[in-house]
Amino acid sequence: MSYRLIRPLLFRLDAERAHRLTIAALKLLPVGGTAVPDILLASRVAGVTFPNPVGLAAGFDKDGEVAHKMHALGFGFAELGTLTPLPQAGNPRPRLFRLVEDGAVINRMGFNNGGQESAAARLAKIDGHGRVIGVNIGANKDSVDRIADYAAGVRRMAPYAAYLTVNISSPNTPGLRALQDRSALDELLRAVMEARGIDGSHRPPIFLKVAPDLEPADIEDIAELSAAHGLDALIISNTTITRPALRSIHGGETGGLSGAPLHDLAHQRLKDFRAATNGSIPLIAAGGIASAEDAYTRIRAGAALVQFYSAMVYEGPWLARRINAGLKRLLLRDGFANISEAIGADC
Asked: How many CA atoms lie within 13 A of 222 on its CB side?
């Protein structure tokens, strides 16, 4: 059935209830085979082979219920979470809002999840071979030592992750973004990288997810510290607390804004980090990506991979397939033999 026919029915439901219904439906998908690398689209980033560059951003599958099935929808990789060491309920409802007139979403979920132990037990039963599943980790809201929470998350989730994402950029946990400050970030990255080195059996690459609401000095600090600590990639970026002109009645809700209104800001931050890192660290673009053209523009601006989540609310579950098909057409049009050749072509 066409998503255009289903969408009005889903939009009659509360946004969070519709999301849970979607997860329940995806659970019914057969696991099937693995994603097949495409000669044009496959690449190796941070030591990991990605069948194609289109990924599912964290937030969609918080507890790892369906990440291992998302390749069936065309995704080259899926990032689950954010997972915290202990389960937490998150913020009071309502906490998820569709801004239909703006093609956007505002959320103030607050890292609601069942905790890392539950997710680890679930992932241990999954045959992840041939599937790129990233794990996004965070700190509990009431933690007395958030850096220790991240180190614990690295140790607990490393065995199940193709890569680990350290999420310090959600606006919905009070004070979390302060970990992007230079001294705090230096301490955090040192603890995280040390935690990864404790278990030599599997040392997944470490990615850092940053906010789009950064000053130039913040960008320089993050770039410098990422290089100093041997970080494997940066995800640019999370949701924004800024509010461009919005038409929806929900535009004044507190929380992180994602979707179409984030497009320009996220794109600019990608370019800023490409300049700050001089292409020395892989960048992953997220924020306002809803088409092959959006993805291709980010890739040419320096992104090795792209991610989205909010766009599926409006464009449906097959968006990844459409973006991949469009990327292939654009690469062939411009004479590229592989996606890697297009990375940073406009820099």
From this structure: 35
